[in-house]
Amino acid sequence: MAERDKQPSSETMASDEAGADFATTVERLEQLVERLESGELSLEGSLAAFEQGVRLTRDAQRRLDEAELRVRTLVEGPEGGVDFDSFSAPSEEEADSER
């Protein structure tokens, strides 16, 4: 049981989370939930999994917020209202030149 409770260092987890895409982050969250619900983890293991889940949730929310900002460009209208302009993705040439 001690083997299952071992968690990677927080530094390793942070670098893994930063490099993961949104779908991978959600998949990792689902795996954590399954482990927590299974009751297999010790108290310490459960707390570590919960902490990792909180970090993953915050990362996923940040990614969603960033995506929303990229998709919707908000422009203030003449009467102070908000008009939504469609987002146009950069062409592949523009994206390549930014890298």
UniProtKB/TrEMBL annotation:
Single GO MF descriptor: exodeoxyribonuclease VII activity
Region (Disordered): 1-22, 76-99
PANTHER family the record matches: EXODEOXYRIBONUCLEASE 7 SMALL SUBUNIT (PTHR34137:SF1)
Name assigned to this protein: Exodeoxyribonuclease 7 small subunit
Catalytic activity of the protein: Exonucleolytic cleavage in either 5'- to 3'- or 3'- to 5'-direction to yield nucleoside 5'-phosphates
This enzyme's EC code(s): 3.1.11.6
Keywords, in A-Z order: Cytoplasm, Exonuclease, Hydrolase, Nuclease
Gene Ontology terms: cellular component: cytosol; exodeoxyribonuclease VII complex
Biological-process GO terms, alphabetical: DNA catabolic process
Cross-referenced NCBIfam families: PRK00977.1-4 (NF002140), xseB (TIGR01280)
SUPFAM superfamilies referenced in this protein's UniProt entry, alphabetically: XseB-like
Gene name tied to this protein: xseB
Entry's family note: Belongs to the XseB family.
KW Nuclease (keyword) present: yes
Organism taxonomic ancestry: Bacteria, Pseudomonadati, Pseudomonadota, Gammaproteobacteria, Oceanospirillales
Function: Bidirectionally degrades single-stranded DNA into large acid-insoluble oligonucleotides, which are then degraded further into small acid-soluble oligonucleotides.
Highest taxon in the source lineage: Bacteria
Main subcellular location of this protein, as a coarse class: cytoplasm
InterPro entries reported in the protein's UniProt record: Exonuc_VII_S (IPR003761), Exonuc_VII_ssu_sf (IPR037004)
